[in-house]
Write a structure and sequence with these properties.
The chain has one helix at 14-17, and strands at 25-33, 36-43, 48-53, 58-71, 74-79, 83-86, 91-95, 100-107. The protein is mainly beta. The N and C termini lie far apart (34 Å).
Length: 116
């Protein structure tokens, strides 16, 4: 069975395993489960992730460069080593004013008692 997930019990240099592509957003899945997923994303200068609203909290950690994360129309500038939690049910946009790489983590469990 072939999987796109990363090899377990092996170290990974995340910044090195994903490359920038001109005028593009590149995503690689690290782990994908029914309870959530972790992805690494490389976004070239000038690119934007479309505005969206997720029913789950999303944790973004910048691992290279700088990003602008707009949550409910409030701009947050993040740089290497910084992270932010995008709350569930809030509009958000991720912008690359310069190119950057990030880890995106979405946890889907734990919402059983809430209205989605």
């Amino acid at each position: 069975m072939q999987t796109n997930e990363f090899e377990k019990s092996k170290t990974h240099a995340l910044v090195e395993i994903i490359e920038y592509v001109a005028n593009s957003v590149v995503t690689k899945t690290i782990i994908r489960k029914t309870t959530g997923n972790i992805c690494i994303v490389a976004i070239d200068t000038g690119e934007t992730l479309a505005e969206k609203i997720s029913p789950f909290d999303t944790y973004l950690q910048i691992i290279e460069g700088k990003a602008e994360v707009v949550i409910d129309e409030k701009s947050n500038m993040l740089q290497t080593g910084q992270a932010i939690i995008i709350p569930a049910h809030t509009s958000n946009i991720v912008k690359a004013n310069e190119r950057f790489k990030m880890i995106s983590t979405i946890i889907k469990s734990g919402y059983e008692g809430s209205i989605i």
